Amino acid sequence: MKEEKKYSSILNSWSVPYKQSKEAAWEELQAKIGIGQDTKVIAINAKKRPVWFALAGAAMIALAALLFLNSDNSVEVNSGASALVHELPDGSKVTLNKYSSLRYEEEFNERALELKGEAFFEVKKGERFDVLTEEGKVSVLGTSFNVFSEDELFEVHCYTGKVGVNLNAKGADDRILTPGQETKKMGVSLTEASEFKGDGPLWMNGYAFDYENAYLKKVIKDLERRFDVKIEISGISTETFTGTFETSDIKTALKTICLPYGLDYQIKSPRRIIIYKK
Fold first, then answer.
1. Which of 28, 59, 73, 95 is the most buried (most CB within 10 A)?
2. SS3 of 30, please?
3. C-alpha distances in Å from residue 36, one per residue of 4, 29, 30
4. How far apart are CA 215 and CA 211, in angstroms?
5. Which has more confidence, 13 or 158?
6. Distance (Å, rounded) from C-alpha 240 to C-alpha 219?
7. pLDDT tens digit string along 88-118?
8. What gap in Å lies between CA 203 and CA 225, rounded to an integer?
9. pLDDT of residue 190
10. What whole-number distance in Å separates Cα of residue 128 and Cα of residue 189?
């Protein structure tokens, strides 16, 4: 426990020069926490499929060191083709959206976990609770909030309590969210905290779609999960979508989001769709 606090202190004050390679960043971190050639680093079982991807920045290297450097007693939870409710060792509850996963130390002493995809959190009050993703980190004491992090998209919605959000990008400003506020990644920074509608995540509300200035790419990601399809897109950058519709039909949903932007789509197979500029 003393060692974990030592690593946490180092990581909280650690910064890496812009564009430094992940190899160089790793060497620097090893030097700071005193890992030498005689230090035993336990490898994670490959069959458990580590959730973190190719490390895009120094913060994810820090995450790997903090959570898994000295222990292979990690727990991984994958939702698969349906949403999944999982209770954490501290009593907090996580509802994972489809095709999402999380990972944490079995003892969960530091109340930190790694998320890939999307999840709704209901956190028990106590010590700080951290959700770490490839794009950024969300920190709370006791609250409910939703985190989405995938394909360079990153969004956080706060429903109760107070949420601290920061990006892994160097120099990005932090955001504090209160109930009914959201922030999302735009370029290498977070948008200002803004109000949103609704008392729960859209993906937990059946076939209701309700967006206000949502990134079109995020809407398409929601369609992928809702209808169990893979959608390939081209000609889309930072367009946003505002609209409300209910449907259990993928074609109706595609028409609703494509027509306003001069987009078209082709259904190549029951599980593969292409969206493109006309």
1. 59
2. helix
3. 17, 11, 7
4. 9
5. 158
6. 9
7. 999 999 999 999 999 999 999 999 999 999 9
8. 9
9. 95
10. 23
- CA 193 – CA 180 distance, rounded (Å): 10
Instruction: Give the list of residues 6+ apart from residue 169 with CB closer than 8 angstroms, or none.
Output: 57, 188, 189
At residue 61, φ and ψ (nearest 5 deg) are -65, -40
- The CA-based angle 190-195-198, given to 5 degrees, is 120
- Express each pLDDT in 142-174 by its tens digit: 999 999 999 999 999 999 999 999 999 887 889
Q: DSSP strand E in the chain: where? A: 74-78, 84-87, 93-96, 101-105, 112-122, 129-132, 136-140, 144-150, 153-160, 163-167, 175-177, 181-186, 189-190, 194-195, 208-215, 230-233, 240-246, 263-269, 272-277
pTM metric for this prediction: 0.72
**Rounded-to-integer distance, Cα 239 and Cα 186, Å:** 12
